Amino acid sequence: MRSSLRKARLRAGLTQSEVARLVGLTRASYTNIERGHKNPSVVTALRIAQVLNRSVEELFSDEPPAGQAAKREANTTMDKY
Questions:
Q1: What range does the domain containing 75 cover?
Q2: Is the backbone of residue 7 left (phi > 0), alpha (psi -120 to 50) or beta?
Q3: Number of other CB atoms surrounding residue 66 within 10 Å
Q4: CATH for 48
Q5: Are 7 and 58 in contact (CB under 8 A)?
Q6: pLDDT of residue 61
Q7: Would you state the pLDDT for residue 73?
Q8: Exposure winner among 8, 9, 19, 60, fewest CB in 10 A?
Q9: What pLDDT, on a 0 to 100 scale, did the predictor assign at position 55?
Q10: In tens digits, what is the pLDDT along the chain, a chain of 81 residues?
Q11: Are 18 and 27 in contact (CB under 8 A)?
């Protein structure tokens, strides 16, 4: 699941149906994107980001935020010992 996408939608106070309508998708299509079952086109990703007032990178990046990456690396390093 793309938790960043879901969290941003909830913070915006929007339902999946509302985001889908504003972006020009069916609710089912948007739900598949939010769940990570489908990848949006670049245009669709940009529209979703605009509706949710977030960057595309924040919503769709496979990389965790910088703080989380550092924590994960520290935990991995500690596991070696």
A1: 3-79
A2: alpha
A3: 8
A4: 1.10.260.40
A5: no
A6: 86
A7: 52
A8: 60
A9: 96
A10: 688 999 999 999 999 999 999 999 999 999 999 999 999 999 999 999 999 999 999 999 876 655 554 554 544 444 444
A11: no
Question: What single letter denotes the amino acid at residue 60?
Answer: F
Query: How many domains does the structure of the chain reveal?
Result: 1
- Of 18, 1, 8, 21, residue with least CA distance to 49: 8
Instruction: For residue 57, give the amino acid letter.
Output: E
Written as six digits, the tokens of 59 are 């919503």
The full DSSP string for the chain is --HHHHHHHHHTT--HHHHHHHHT--HHHHHHHHTTSSPPPHHHHHHHHHHHTS-HHHHH-SSPPHHHHHHHHHHHHHHT-
